[in-house]
């Protein structure tokens, strides 16, 4: 049957009353972990590149390092497979199978290994006929595949949106959420649904997305560069469709992986990404090589003060409140009650730190007469200030100042 005719038939079987929510109790704070794609891509050459190919060995190694190198202790928990783990066809029972040469023990064994480390395993699929890299997708097989993932002990699914018309997404993404629920295994659900609508004529229906998904990619893939990072920050700052308001416990906007520890960002630019992912309440999924990482990158990724802002239990996503040439300011309400985190980002390349004067009230911070301001990365005290005091902040070229203001 033609794809469109078949999907029409399938959609007409989905009753409009089936609006039960994902409601799986997961992702009360943004998920933290590691995801293969940005750094390891679709390297399937285990013969010539055995240490870097997409294989069970890679995921075991990264799981081991999350534990051994202290990442687990600060909250990184998920070890996530991305594209290119599958065989090119389903088995005789129509089930998905991992490539047997690269995953000789199978995904169920890999999940046991990861669970024994006290971690969780994530997997990747695509709502369409094929994944973005051309492996079998899940269209028309949702219950079978959800059950396969549950039987394997999978804890998270990233569902991509290649090779399927975007008009089907409002039906297909919620339906896969229901299929995951029907397995009775709690599986965190990451949807790429709005990313495929970005830049198009229609804004995504964020309310429906937030009801069906624990996290969702809104925008383009991150690449290993400052330009890519800036493009993402600007997209989230523009907040078209007001998607920031749909973030909260159980539901998060996902600006894609952390590229800290890779090739493309300077030290200051890596701090920008960490601070901005914290202010945006973004999932912290590292796309790097934990075997080869500079100590200063590791320190940024493991900074407990910044992670605490990211994981703030209120789960309010920050917003850009000032945009002025190269400078932008973002704020986010955090605990204790009445407090705020803020970031001042400098895109400028004028080779000396920018000295920037702001009152707390300029940054949208009000409600109390005075606040204790601290710098978040190192916890140093800036001072106690009223909302109308002018405070000078020094921000490095392509760098960030991250602050916290607590009512006194
Ligand atoms: C898309 C996604 C990426 C990655 C690749 C895999 O581009 O947005 O994050 O999953 O597919 O092919």
TrEMBL record:
Q: Where is the Alpha galactosidase A C-terminal domain?
A: 315-399
Is Isomerase there in the keyword field? no
- Give compartment(s): Lysosome
Q: Which GO terms describe its molecular function?
A: alpha-galactosidase activity
Q: Name one GO biological process term.
A: glycoside catabolic process
Q: Principal localization? A: other
- Where does the UniProt annotation place the signal sequence? 1-21
Q: What class of enzyme is it?
A: hydrolase
Please provide the record's keywords in A-Z order.
Disulfide bond, Glycoprotein, Glycosidase, Hydrolase, Lipid metabolism, Lysosome, Signal
The record ties this protein, via SUPFAM superfamilies, to:
(Trans)glycosidases, Glycosyl hydrolase domain
According to its record, what are the GO cellular component terms? Answer: lysosome; membrane
> Per the UniProt record, which EC number(s) apply here?
3.2.1.-
- How does the record describe its quaternary structure? Homodimer.
User: Which protein family is named in the record?
Assistant: Belongs to the glycosyl hydrolase 27 family.
Task: Specify the protein name.
Answer: Alpha-galactosidase
- According to its UniProt entry, this protein's organism is Lingula anatina
């Amino acid at each position: 049957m033609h794809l469109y005719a078949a999907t029409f038939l399938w959609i007409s079987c989905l009753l409009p009353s089936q609006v039960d929510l994902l409601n799986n109790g997961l992702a009360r704070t943004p998920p933290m972990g590691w995801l293969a794609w940005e750094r390891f891509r679709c390297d399937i050459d285990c013969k010539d590149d055995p240490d870097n190919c997409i294989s069970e060995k890679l995921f075991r190694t990264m799981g081991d390092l999350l534990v051994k190198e202290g990442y687990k202790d600060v909250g990184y928990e998920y070890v996530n497979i991305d594209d290119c783990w599958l065989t090119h066809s389903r088995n005789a029972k129509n089930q998905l199978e991992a490539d047997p040469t690269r995953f000789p023990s199978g995904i169920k064994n890999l999940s046991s290994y990861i669970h024994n480390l006290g971690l969780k395993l994530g997997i990747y699929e695509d709502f369409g006929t094929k994944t973005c890299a051309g492996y079998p997708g899940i269209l028309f097989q949702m219950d079978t595949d959800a059950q396969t993932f549950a039987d394997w002990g999978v804890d998270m699914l990233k569902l991509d949106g290649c090779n399927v018309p975007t008009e089907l997404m409002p039906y297909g993404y919620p339906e896969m959420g229901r299929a995951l629920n029907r397995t009775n295994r709690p599986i965190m659900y990451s949807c790429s649904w709005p990313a495929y609508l970005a830049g198009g004529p229609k804004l995504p229906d964020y309310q429906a997305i937030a009801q069906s998904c624990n996290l969702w990619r809104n925008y383009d893939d991150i690449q290993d560069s400052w330009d890519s990072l800036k493009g993402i920050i600007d997209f989230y700052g523009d907040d078209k469709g007001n998607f920031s308001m749909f973030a909260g416990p159980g539901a998060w906007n996902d600006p894609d992986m952390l590229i800290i520890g890779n090739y493309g960002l300077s030290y200051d630019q890596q701090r920008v990404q960490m601070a901005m992912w914290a202010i945006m309440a973004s999932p912290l999924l590292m796309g790097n090589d934990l075997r080869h990482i500079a100590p200063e990158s590791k320190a940024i990724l493991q900074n407990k003060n910044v992670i605490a802002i990211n994981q703030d239990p209120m789960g309010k996503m920050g917003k850009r409140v000032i945009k002025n040439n190269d400078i932008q300011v973002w704020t986010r309400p955090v605990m204790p009650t009445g407090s705020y985190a803020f970031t001042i980002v400098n895109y400028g390349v004028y080779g000396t730190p920018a000295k920037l004067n702001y009152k707390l009230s300029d940054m949208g911070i009000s409600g109390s007469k005075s606040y204790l301001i601290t710098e978040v990365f190192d916890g140093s005290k800036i001072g106690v200030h009223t909302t109308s005091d002018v405070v000078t902040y020094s921000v490095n070229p392509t760098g960030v100042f991250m602050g916290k203001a607590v009512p006194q």
